[in-house]
Amino acid sequence: MIPSLSRMAVLLLTSGFTVTASGNPHFSADEIMTWSSRSFSGETDYQLIEQNGYKVLQAQSRGNASALYLEQEINLTNTPYIQWCWKVSNVYPGLDETTKQGDDYPARVYVARKTGLLPWQIESVNYVWASSQPIGADWINAFTDRAHLLALQSGGSKVGEWVAEAHDVSADYAKLFGKKVDHIDGVALMSDGDNASVNATAWFTHIAFSSSASLPECPSS
């Protein structure tokens, strides 16, 4: 019997090739909009919009879930930090995010790596804007132990505000999976509300990998 697959595993399995990134990979909103899309339950509506002179990606989930993803090998030895800016319209109060019924997030960014040739041999870290779990909390995905979630933001205190993030992917894999890794094989983002039939809008811009832990410059809220 094939073990349950994480959503990131499904994304990587839909592509037949891997591109290796050179330099410091940086993805503008225009570039993210060209990434492949994968539906899990209906379609999250992705659009390019302008906010305060910045072009950003808007993701509207109305009780559905689809992701934009890129399969690309990224060298974490040279660029271990992932950076991005995000904003959400609301959170989902009352969800137990450690359960299958509560596995919904107004915004999430994934990184993943292949650990073998078999389809389920993929490990992913999900950076999420949590509704109930506190900032800094981490937990195993309810659908598979090959996906770990890490709450970078939580609750409504910063709803409607742009927030800059920078996280050491190598350190997070060491903490969550107990192993040192030197590369990942894919990155993705999503706003989803399919399990609990909830709605939210998220905005993303400036996804990049860097040797520096410095925060990106976000649009003004």
Question: Could you explain how this protein is built, in words?
Answer:
The protein has 221 residues and is mainly beta. The chain has a single domain, classed as Jelly Rolls, CATH 2.60.120. Helix content is 10%, strand content 47%. It has three helices and 14 strands. Strand 8 (105-114) and strand 9 (122-130) form a beta hairpin. The longest helix is centred in the last third of the chain and has 9 residues, at 169-177.
Quick structural overview:
With 221 residues, the protein is mainly β. It contains 3 helices and 14 strands.
SSE layout and pairings?
Blueprint lengths: L6 H7 L5 E2 L5 E2 L1 H5 L2 E6 L3 E7 L2 E9 L2 E11 L5 E8 L16 E10 L7 E9 L7 E3 L6 E8 L8 E6 H9 L5 E10 L6 E12 L11
Parallel strand pairs: 1-6, 9-11
Antiparallel strand pairs: 2-14, 3-6, 4-5, 5-14, 6-13, 7-12, 7-14, 8-9, 8-13, 10-11
Class by alpha and beta content: mainly beta
What CATH calls the topology is Jelly Rolls
Order of helices and strands: HEEHEEEEEEEEEEHEE
**CATH uppermost class:** Mainly Beta
Strand content: over 45%
Q: Provide a count of the helices.
A: 3
Keywords:
mainly beta; Jelly Rolls; eight-stranded mixed beta sheet; 14 strands; disordered N terminus
